[in-house]
Amino acid sequence: MLDYDKEAGDYDVLRGGEPRAEAAARAVLGLVPEGTRNLLDIACGTGIVTRRFAAERDGMRVAGVDLTYAMASRAAARLPGSVVIGDGRRLPFRDGGFDAVTSVWLLHLLGGPDDVRTVVGECARVLRPGGVYVTTVDKAASHNVGSDIDAVLAPRPRAPVMDTAAAIEKYADEHGLRAAGQARFRGRGQGRSPRRTVTDLRRGWFVTLPPGDPLADDFAVRLAALPDQDRARPDPEFTLRAFRKV
After folding, report:
1. Is the pTM of this model over 0.70?
2. What is the CATH number of domain 4-144+159-191+235-245?
3. What is the pLDDT of residues 229-240, one digit of tens each?
């Protein structure tokens, strides 16, 4: 797992920056009903997406929460007075206090099914009846764009997938959340080149291939042999699901 306190300084640059944030925010807001008065963004990170929620909906109050100090401090600079440090498994907010809750690129990072179920339950708890929860699902699969890089990495060990659409639908249903829509958006600027993928491999991006592991070194050699080392392959396409609280 990456250390997001250490990642915070370079996080936006390495993950598509403002173009990706714009695509994500527009897709999420497309699933958030007009007239939503307040929205909570869980795992808001640097706030690069969260800020756009506030900017693109006049009159909607937006709050963010993140577990890591370095991430939350950057988000707070973008949304002064609206960001707190907190754990998605124990949100520091009252029951039914929000019209909408979002979690973008979070559920795949959690430690196991129990954590995912708990976070979904917390999102349901802080939603008012009729409120909407929007989340990304199937994050890892989004990065498989059928490129030569994907072909090289296909045999690598896989971590358990925490955020399959089927699992999230099940947890949502357990907490009184019913399917209310879906959308997709491109992770603009996130298309990987072979050289960038080797860099990500060396810094521990792939959790089943820790830096220094002989298997990681073998994949690095194979990636370095690919043509067009600095040409970005296609951007990933992410999937969103929306759920309404009954």
Report:
1. yes
2. 3.40.50.150
3. 999 999 999 999
